[in-house]
Amino acid sequence: MECDAAGFLPDVGFPTARPSVMLPERTFWEKATAIHVFCRRARHRGTRLSRHWHDLVRLDEAGYADSAFADRELGLAVARHKSMFFREKDTSGHWIDYEAAVSGGLQLIPAAPLYEQLAADRDRMVGDGMLRDDAGPFEEVMSRCADIEARANAV
């Protein structure tokens, strides 16, 4: 990978890079399981979390959700890793089952009051310019995520 400025400054030597990146399907499962935990967790923690729902919709638009659904082994690998390092309890005090999230039990839409907190978080992110101008209305993003959830759980 070459620096963008290299073509404009031919007399300057720029370093090149070969960045390693995560597969988009893995990114999908990482975000989907993070959202699943958010929806099932007893309390809200953190800010700027609504980006995960936005990113999930963008990954779906690019076709990566369907290919992630087809690669359940990858989903299970993500789930097993997270169950070792990111254990969380649900509203009943039970450990959240990451493997269920990638095996037909994915939850992407939180119940109230987390839903309202997520909407407020997203409004702040949009207002701060953290999401693209074409981010779309919150309800549309949540509707798209409900569709992704139904498709993931049907596979």
Describe the structure.
The protein has 155 residues and is mostly helical. The chain has one domain. It has 7 helices and no strands. The chain has helices spanning 24-40, 51-61, 64-70, 72-85, 98-101, 114-127, 138-154. The longest helix has 17 residues, at 24-40. The chain starts with 23 loop residues before the first helix and ends with a helix. 26% of the residues are buried. The mean pLDDT is 92.
Mean pLDDT: 92
Low-confidence runs (pLDDT<50, min 5 residues)? none
The number of helical runs is: 7
Give the termini separation. Answer: 37 Å
Largest sheet: none
Secondary-structure element string:
HHHHHHH
What key attributes describe this structure?
globular; 155 residues; mainly alpha; 7 helices; 0% strand
Gist?
With 155 residues, this protein is mainly α. It has helices at residues 24-40, 51-61, 64-70, 72-85, 98-101, 114-127, 138-154.
